[in-house]
């Protein structure tokens, strides 16, 4: 049975994005097509891939084969940090689109700013061009701190519609989310379950038992109630389905306060400032 698709959140450029999507980081290419089709079959309308994930071709196959109109599906990919720069970004986009086999992309992201190479503003200028040419609907960033975003805006006048960052109960990114909200930028969470490590916390177990849900569903519901876009990865149809089934319950104020107390600042990935 198909679940109710996630609600769509507005982007400042007039587009909308499904709030909960299927993340394909570390999904092997051999499995990506079938898992993406499974996600679409149960109700997902948002697929998140990247050049670095090496599964764009299979994601594109799933989009083309799915019994769902293309305009109902939202596809994200990203330019890898080695391709930061103006001309290299344009080439990387062409390569991604060839692999995806799509005429137009819904969202293109700068995967990492890599301040040490100082090319992310040039990358952004290339993405602005791609958007102006109608090849991509929306453009945004990933793993940017607030000052990286401020520099993009100061030098180009164009604000990203979204910033995809590591975000989970240990690392709720409160200040960054506030910065985003003040500028109309959506926050998107990768590693939303802290690569599964946060799920053993007894606080989450207690909340999950009270709601008749799993700890993973509790954390994903927490993301939804914060207003985040969230893209959990899963490697089985059962987990894919369970991750989308978070719109039939709500956390109360006590639940949210208990989850807020889990903050430690711990990352599971690198700090973008030093990458």
Describe this structure in words.
The model has no long low-confidence stretch (mean pLDDT 97). The protein has a single domain, classed as TIM Barrel (Alpha-Beta Barrel). The radius of gyration is 18 Å and the shape is globular. The protein is built from ten helices and ten strands. Helices cover 40% and strands 15% of the residues. The strands form two sheets. The protein has an eight-stranded parallel β-sheet with strand order 3-4-5-6-7-8-9-10. A two-stranded antiparallel sheet has the order 1-2. With 275 residues, the chain is of the alpha/beta class. The protein starts with 7 loop residues before the first strand and ends in a 15-residue tail after the last helix.
Estimate the mean pLDDT confidence.
97
* Low-confidence residue ranges: none
Helical content stands at: 40-55%
CATH C-level name? Alpha Beta
How many strand elements? Answer: 10
Q: Can you tell me the number of structural domains?
A: 1
Order of strands, widest sheet = 3-4-5-6-7-8-9-10
Work out the radius of gyration. 18 Å
Counting copies of identical and different chains, the oligomeric state is single chain
CATH topology: TIM Barrel
> How many helices in DSSP terms?
10
Globally, the shape reads globular
Structural class: alpha/beta
Distance between the termini: 43 Å
CATH superfamily: NADP-dependent oxidoreductase domain
CATH architecture: Alpha-Beta Barrel
Taken as a percent bin, the fraction of beta residues is: 15-25%
Please summarize the sheet with the most strands: 8 strands, parallel
Short description:
By secondary structure, the protein is an alpha/beta fold.
């Amino acid at each position: 049975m198909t679940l109710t698709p996630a609600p769509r959140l507005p982007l400042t450029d007039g587009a909308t994005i499904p709030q909960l999507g299927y993340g394909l980081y570390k999904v092997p290419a051999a499995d990506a097509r079938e898992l993406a089709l499974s996600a679409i079959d149960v109700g997902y309308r948002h697929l998140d891939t990247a050049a670095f994930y090496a599964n764009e071709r299979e994601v594109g196959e799933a989009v083309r084969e799915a019994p769902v109109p293309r305009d109902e599906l939202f596809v994200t990919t990203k330019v890898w940090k080695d391709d930061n720069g103006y001309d290299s970004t344009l080439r990387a986009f062409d390569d991604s689109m060839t692999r995806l086999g799509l005429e137009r992309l819904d969202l293109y992201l700068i995967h990492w700013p890599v301040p040490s190479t100082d090319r992310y503003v040039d990358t952004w200028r290339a993405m602005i061009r791609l958007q102006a040419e109608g090849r991509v609907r929306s453009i945004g960033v990933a793993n940017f701190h607030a000052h990286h975003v401020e520099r993009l805006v100061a030098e180009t006048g164009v604000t990203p519609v979204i910033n995809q960052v590591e975000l989970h109960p240990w690392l709720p990114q409160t200040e960054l989310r506030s910065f985003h909200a003040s500028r109309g930028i959506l926050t998107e969470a990768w590693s939303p379950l802290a690569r599964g490590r946060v799920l053993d916390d007894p606080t989450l177990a207690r909340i999950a038992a009270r709601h008749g849900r799993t700890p993973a569903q509790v954390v994903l519901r927490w993301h939804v109630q914060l207003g985040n876009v969230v893209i959990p990865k899963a490697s089985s149809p059962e987990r894919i389905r369970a991750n989308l089934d978070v719109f039939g319950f709500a956390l109360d104020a006590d639940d949210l306060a208990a989850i807020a107390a889990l903050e430690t600042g711990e990352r599971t990935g690198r700090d973008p400032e030093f990458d």
